[in-house]
Specification:
This protein is of the alpha/beta class and about 400 residues long. The chain contains ten helices and 19 strands. The two termini are about 35 Å apart.
Length: about 400
């Protein structure tokens, strides 16, 4: 199949006064020439909140067809199947789903502890794999999955969706071009105010539904939330941390949980760059945020928007739009700086579109097995640092 590359046009510039403006023309379908017969039959393994949510997203993606759904809990399976517009086949055992020769690819949205085994079985069955973050639990689980993928020609994408976000990609490019200057630090947070528990219709389903609360199955806040931002820092810096230290605890929600209800991690990267990651469940101020701090300025990012705050340029300026198309102006956003304008799809949808494209074009995903494994190793390092109250160094033998 001969297919043109996507050409997303980025128009951005630094005005003579040193103020950033970025304006773009968005086109998600440029020169795509897929055959109407190029349909990828998907099997969704794990139809909890995430798996069911992504099932709904796939309904609007042209070449993805939800062919089957699987979950060990009947009421969750029913929920997941109801989200598809394709009347999928239902399975209670993922191995039976993998035996179905009509299924081309699987989306794995099961508890963190099961990812490695299910993904390896899927590769053995000849399926392409979209594996939700965090890639795998424990050093052995990560390493064995990476080794298995090295023996397979199947497409493998890790579900760190910000790797696919056109906004985050644009910011990555701006940073590489020197917009913030020499990076000193990243400050990342993902705060919520809530117990993070799901309702349980029967006590016997407690661990199946609230698996995130138990160390046997989960990496807690570090794996479920911090991992996205750790993945971004690794991506921007093009490297992995040298070491991590951290602290956390079960200090607010006294409800029998094992994984921490607050985490505070400090990773040290080469060249002295520090990256902090904080997750709270007792205060939601500013919720999700990443700050990229350099000697020329700071970029502040939330899931859908970003701003540039120039260092030493505190006066409020209005800069003419540099693209010469709309003749618009860029307004100062009080307390944040100048907006970075980049039209983009919901990152989860864009990630699934990218997975589709990688399969149809036989290309390596932006968030592949290696980037996913590096982030998973960072997550495990952070957990070890907090649980054992020690500094954990990067082990070059693992990857």
């Amino acid at each position: 199949m001969k297919t043109s590359r996507r050409n997303f046009i980025r128009k951005a510039g630094i005005a003579s006064a040193g103020i950033l403006t970025a304006n773009t023309v968005f086109s998600d379908v440029l020169n795509q020439k897929y055959s109407p017969n190029d349909v990828i039959n998907m099997g969704v393994i794990g139809t909890g909140d995430r798996g069911s949510g992504l099932t709904s997203v796939m309904n609007s993606i042209k070449h993805l067809n939800v062919y089957a759904s699987c979950d060990v809990l009947p009421f969750r399976l029913e929920k997941g199947m109801s989200r598809a517009n394709t009347s999928p086949i239902g399975y209670s055992d993922y191995r039976a789903l993998l035996d179905n020769k009509n299924i081309d690819a699987v989306l794995i949205a099961t508890p963190f502890s099961t990812h490695s085994k299910i993904a390896m079985d899927a590769l053995d069955a000849g399926k392409h794999v979209y594996c939700e973050k965090t890639l795998a639990k424990g050093y052995d689980g990560i390493k064995t999955l990476v080794n298995k993928k090295a023996q397979s020609k199947q497409i493998f994408q890790t579900g760190h969706q910000y790797h696919s976000s056109r906004l985050y990609t644009h910011i990555y490019n701006l940073i590489q071009e020197g917009t913030v200057g020499k990076i000193a630090a990243f400050e990342c947070q993902w705060n919520r105010h809530g117990s993070w528990r799901r309702p349980v219709p029967n006590p016997k389903f407690e661990k199946e539904i609230n698996w995130r609360m138990y160390k046997e199955f989960s990496g807690g806040l570090t794996a479920e939330l911090c991992s996205h931002q750790i993945d971004f820092v690794n991506w921007v810096l093009g490297t992995t941390p040298l070491q991590v230290m951290g602290a956390g605890g079960v200090d607010y929600w006294k409800d029998g949980r094992e994984t921490f209800d607050n985490v505070h991690l400090l990773y040290t990267y080469p060249k002295g760059i520090k990256a902090t990651f904080t997750c709270l469940t007792s205060n939601a101020k500013d919720r999700y945020q990443i700050k990229v701090i350099g000697d020329k300025g700071t970029i502040i990012i939330d899931p859908r928007h970003a701003w540039f705050y120039p260092e030493g340029k505190q006066e409020k300026k209005i800069i003419e739009d540099v693209d010469g198309v709309r003749g618009a102006t860029v307004q100062w956003d009080e307390g944040k700086g100048y907006p970075i304008n980049k039209e983009h799809l919901d990152p989860s949808k864009q990630a699934l579109i990218d997975f589709q494209d990688s399969i149809l074009n036989n290309t390596t995903p932006k968030s592949d097995i290696i980037t996913g494994a590096k982030t998973a190793l960072c997550v495990q390092m952070g957990l070890d640092a907090m649980y054992n109250n020690k500094i954990v160094k990067w082990n070059t033998k693992l990857l």
